[in-house]
């Protein structure tokens, strides 16, 4: 393989730096003198290149040089990702690390980020040291940088958590258009993308909490002596605690290979200052424009001031961003095949309203950045709607996020797509349901038949995506009479596309982080299904034993429930029902004459068997099956876990029983 001259010279420079660093030249001279002295006769003072290389190999110098030119990774880490996932909260002494050499591309520039422990996590000051094998709460650090994502090993929650992880971040990805060229310090200084770090806490029940979200400015390393710098990063809380320190992480940054020429600290400080000024000026101009737009909107009709027109929203750090910046066309690669499958994926991400300290019933506003939402694996309705809208835009649909209310005036967001034929479809991001909108005409005669809306939405104040923002200026904001002709400025007041582009366009210097790529699921569906099913069998048997009832399981009947669970998930994803005839026929054959069959399917988005069982018992139909009394009672349970990206999953459980009917 031939290299271009400039690459060859860069590669030679890297190797030369490494040889000088290891003082290889001095060691070669020693070996040369030793070899001449020991192995050659006095009359033959000629030494070939082959003889010298052989001597260097024998003394292990060649191996040492090659080892220094490679990075080392832990094979156990790779095995952990490919092996069946164990609960991250179990700490057992695993095998000592087996180190494997990993070649890195010497023509690319890397940032090696090491997390060398934490301190001052005062909330965990009183936590005792976990015993080996004991279940405990853990911290996990998630990183995103220029389309690359990383996750640390979980560590027990403590005042000084024992983080010891290294992440190799490629600085120059191909998206800059010249991905094959080694970047210098000046080019890297223009790369304004921060390293986004999200700290997640997982409790003993597997519930996740967002602890902190931090944007690390890594470019200080470009002016550091020897290309290495140590940073103490103070993490602040999220939401209502966004001004409170939660702890400090010790981070070491190192450029690899080392830069030939370092920048002066004055240059980096000036660059950061210019970027901040440019961002602040863009945001100031947009704010001036937004105020003017709002004044014009209120002049159309005074009652507009009570409509839900949302121009700015706060992220998890309490910072305001234009709502359009939370949307960006997002492609799922090969992880999701259809828009409806994307809607199903978003719906199985957990739903949880942002926590509020104290009473009052007020809703705490918190629109999470995408990385925080994905790593936590749950969020509010706005997070779901933003992700679904971004995915639908990635599939080439004209999608918008709608801001309005549901029944009883509860604020809500959902997604809308506009078909080329004018069809308006609403997508509920929390359930995956789709509704076609047919507006009611208020001018029709009273006896004219009007379509009955099936959707739960009552009012709509505005719609937006990454390029457009439109305020509803129709006489009524009721969804059922709303006309979604977005080109008609008498019905929808638009914002300037240029103004939105100035603060929301990807690639521009702004305070909005780039979107991370989606990650494939790490859950093994078959193993997880078996584990939950086994736990449920034990729980059912114990529950019946407490009632003085024996339990006999029918494995064949349990297996026959599988097609029904697969059909339920297919229906949720595609809205198509299939396979019901075969399932009913199989059950009729499995249940003898004079016997009764009862079945109860239920759906969850978590994998906690005990929690699922407690929920099932609250249903009188399910309790009737689990606590069934009679002659020749046979019980069955089947669990089917359907995995989606980001380790989201749909868990279907079906309890069933058959027994002899006694009149």
Automatic annotation (TrEMBL):
Pfam families according to UniProt: CEP76-C2, CEP76_C, CEP76_N, CEPT76_peptidase
Keyword annotations: Cytoplasm, Cytoskeleton
Annotated SUPFAM superfamilies: Cysteine proteinases
Residue span, Centrosomal protein of 76 kDa C-terminal domain: 523-660
Record-annotated CEP76 C2 domain positions: 103-260
InterPro entries: CEP76, CEP76-C2, CEP76_C, CEP76_N, CEPT76/DRC7_peptidase-like_dom, Papain-like_cys_pep_sf
Tree of life domain: Eukaryota
Residue ranges crossing the lipid bilayer per the database entry: none
Localization: Cytoplasm, Cytoskeleton, Microtubule organizing center, Centrosome, Centriole
Sequence ranges assigned to domain CEP76/DRC7 peptidase-like in this UniProt record: 365-495
Ranges of residues in domain CEP76 N-terminal: 10-69
PANTHER family according to UniProt: CENTROSOMAL PROTEIN OF 76 KDA
Family membership: Belongs to the CEP76 family.
Cited function: Centrosomal protein involved in regulation of centriole duplication. Required to limit centriole duplication to once per cell cycle by preventing centriole reduplication.
Name of this protein: Centrosomal protein of 76 kDa
Organism: Apteryx mantelli
GN (gene name): CEP76
